[in-house]
Structures are given as structure tokens and as C-alpha cells.
Amino acid sequence: MISQLPKWVEIGAFSLACVAGCINAIGLLGFEHQSVSHLSGTATLLGTGFLSSSLQKTFHLVGILFSFMGGACIAGFLLHGSTLKLGRHYDTVLFIESIFLCVSSLLLISGSFYGHFLASAACGLQNALATTYNGAIIRTTHVTGIFTDLGIMFGSVFKWQDIDRRKAKLFIFI
């Protein structure tokens, strides 16, 4: 375990946190005033509004949840290991994130709420990148972490790698 992170990791983490904050601010200021990176609130809105909300709003909320998990799945497919080391496709993940954000911006500017889905997928990519680095064990208080972990697991399945099925079932039922 690293007792003190290298300076470049601290700067990178700060930069990525700023990017995530900007993405979320754009989501909050946009079409549905909806967070795209904090899935606990999204899941709560979905649960409380499931019977009373319109089909479009329900689709929007479900789309944000699954887009985030899809982004985490892509990162889970591309990344491996829990130590920070060159050659782990971090650049590829960040490049995909930037493409998602650019296309998301174009969609949001044109008034399409589908831009929220790509922004959420970008957040899922970034969250999974950080999770695969620091090796989070289990999360029980935030749905965002659970969706990230499930996405990483599904990414591993797509690479024909074994996953902890018991842990996957636990996450699905949490």
C-alpha cells in the first residue's frame, strides 16, 4: 500500500474531480435538472416517481443509471489490476471519456436529453478507472459505487474473465 501518493496522482485526481463536478453541474443546469454522476439520487427519484412520473422521465432516469453502468463496463473491459502502472489503457479510457463528453455537449446544445446519457457514461468510465486503481471492496451506502462495481464485473465477463458471482449477486440485490 502506498502511504503517500505521488504528486502526479494527486494532480490527476484533483483534475478528474473537477471534470466530474463540471459534468454534474451541466446535468443539473440542463433539461431535467438531473444529476448524471450521483446515482443514489437518480435511483431515489426513479423509485419515488415510478408510478407518478411520465414514461419519458422514467426512461430518462433509467437511461442515466444504465449509461453510467455501461461506462463502468467499458472501463472494466479495458482496465485490469489494482495497481497504478503504465500500459493499463488509462489513456484509452480517458480518450473515450472525452469523446463521450464532446458528443454529449453537441446533443445537449441541440436540446436532446440523450446528452445526459453520454455524460453519465463518461462519469461511469471515470469512476471505474478510479475504482480499479484503489480496489474498493464493497459499498453499501451509495448506489453509484454499486453500479460502478457491477459495470466493472460485466466488463470482465465480456473479456471472458471469471468474476465473483456471489459478490455480483450481492450487488444486484443491494
TrEMBL record:
Keywords: Membrane, Transmembrane, Transmembrane helix
Entry superkingdom: Bacteria
Classification via InterPro entries: DUF1275
Coiled coil stretches, renumbered: none
Stretches that traverse the bilayer: 12-31, 59-81, 93-117, 137-158
Descriptive protein name: YoaK family protein
Provenance organism: Candidatus Endonucleibacter bathymodioli
